[in-house]
Amino acid sequence: MRILHILDAAGVACIYSKYQRMQGHDASVIWNKDVADKYGIYDFYKDYLIKVTYEKFTQTCLKEAEGVDVIHVHGYIDIVFELRKKFQKQKKIILHYHGTDIRGLKKQARPHRSLLSDTAIKLKMLYRKKIGHARAQKLADAVCVSTPDLLPLVRNGIHVPIPIDIEHFSSKNNPNRELKEAFTINSEVTNIQRALELCKNNQINLNIEVIDRTKNPIRYTNIPDFIRGYRTYVDIRYVNDIVLENLSSTALQSLSCGLNVVNYKLEILHGLPKEHDAVNVATQLTKIYSELGII
Q1: CATH number of the domain located at residue range(s) 2-163+277-291 in this protein
Q2: Domain boundaries, the chain
Q3: Model's pTM, two decimal places?
Q4: pLDDT tens per residue, range 14-40
């Protein structure tokens, strides 16, 4: 089976392609090489990529899609419209959401240009939220989401767990290494102070180091070794003033590397859940494709 992934979210499509190839399929990801690779994800998974410029992106997607069995679009609804216009019902299209691409952000900083420009941007975003996503979902043969909290935001959604590259994220610890106690990740979309206060107010007495990967990026190739320098990862994330109940990618990577993880309920978890093993996720995707009559 030939599978074309269009765009990516934090390496998810790359991991799909890697493990789909391991299962005997022909899978690749079209990626916009003009996008900065701050964490080195697309350098690490370069063997699975078709890199093109922004100007040639749509043209390349339409050309590459001609010879594939399934087109797996990651959050980019505009290309869904172009694909359906060209192929009508000849191709099977999966639309896959990963978080803010459908959830959005209440507080998202944007540069002020002019009242007219700001109004136009707001109207465009409102259209996408109210009309664009609904239209794209109707055009897709299946709609997938990476976390269960996104299911109410889509029609007839299928939850596909976040895949963890278990070859890369493994528990190969150095027994002579002195481990730090705990860490958590601060990002542009989370309220980290609220998470720390929750721990403090509930007697979670850990020395939690806050890592800001937006200011000090850790290369993807080095993340497993970095994670294995700690005993515990604290996975409490408030986004849009709501605590997220699913485990984050970093939490899952930490579990795969042998760490304990403190979740939003302040429970201590250990061991990667089987549904997040990339081998099992690739198998689930094959089943979804099969149910659409692709194989």
Answers
A1: 3.40.50.2000
A2: 2-163+277-291, 180-273
A3: 0.86
A4: 999 999 999 999 999 999 999 989 899
